[in-house]
Amino acid sequence: MSRRTLKELSWDECFAMLGQGTVGRFVYADDLGPAAVPVNYAVAGQNIVFRSQDGSKVRGLRGHRVAFEVDHVDDTSRSGWSVLVRGTGEEVEMERVPELLRRINDDVPLPWKEGIHKIWVVITPKTVTGRRLADMTVEGFI
Amino acid sequence: MSRRTLKELSWDECFAMLGQGTVGRFVYADDLGPAAVPVNYAVAGQNIVFRSQDGSKVRGLRGHRVAFEVDHVDDTSRSGWSVLVRGTGEEVEMERVPELLRRINDDVPLPWKEGIHKIWVVITPKTVTGRRLADMTVEGFI
User: Fold this and answer.
1) Does B75 touch chain A (CB under 8 A)?
2) B55 vs B28: CA distance, rounded Å
3) ipTM
């Protein structure tokens, strides 16, 4: 018998967890199928934002469906949480979005250096789901 | 200027890193687009394997394109690595694959409890890519 306790997180609880993290996985699909890469992210209002290199694989999003995943698993206590944001992604030229810049600078002191990556990816969520598990086997996540 | 050092990992180096992990993200696509969920995994030969619940979202894979992502990021030292396996996923009934069971039991002592999840998902890689970063900003991952 499983002793794990699984709790579904609300939208607000999910964003509270997202606010704790600094590294998440950008999830996208290209000609080879779905893929995920870790990125350093920030939360701006209800958006997930991160910087991207010119010419990277996330170019050309233009409203495509993407996802963003953040989790924390403690192997010792066998507990953890995960949040999955599903929505659309868009590239934004930093210079064109003073409003976004202002929101992020107000909310989140970014660890990123200036001037390396000019393109920002902004994810607008459609669904946000999350789970918290305690005293569990991690298999319970799905 | 960036001080980060980025090294592409070979197939064998990627599998060495995969062998160190216990939790990764299963990346798939459904009607809502791409998504990722953390799972407790094992490596069996060149395959990634994990257990799944009956009726979970990963049912009905049957050779669909999927991915599997594992990373480790140390915020303090600003270093880390990530590996992305891209390939196909298949559900396998445990009872039908004594050979797979034998390989896994020989290779990897599984932390999972017996009898909870009867379905196994087996990912067969087509591409395996990875990066190791040192003294970096995590933005460099993509």
Assistant:
1) yes
2) 16
3) 0.82
Q: Which two tokens stand for residue A99?
A: 């409003």
Residue B59: pLDDT band with limits 50, 70, 90: low
Q: Which CB contacts under 8 angstroms, 24+ apart, belong to B18-22?
A: B18/B43, B18/B48, B18/B70, B18/B83, B18/B85, B19/B43, B20/B72, B21/B70, B21/B72, B22/A75, B22/A138, B22/B111
Letter for the amino acid at B62? Answer: R
Contact A40 B66 (CB under 8 A): no
pTM for this model (two decimals): 0.82
Closest residue in B to A73 (Cα) is: B23
Rounded average pLDDT over A16-32: 91
Q: What backbone phi and psi angles, to 5 degrees, belong to B73? A: -125, 125
For residue B141, the chain A residues in CB contact (below 8 A) are: 37-40
Q: Report phi then psi at B19, rounded to 5.
A: -70, -20
From the list A33, A71, A116, the residue facing B86 with the nearest CB is A33
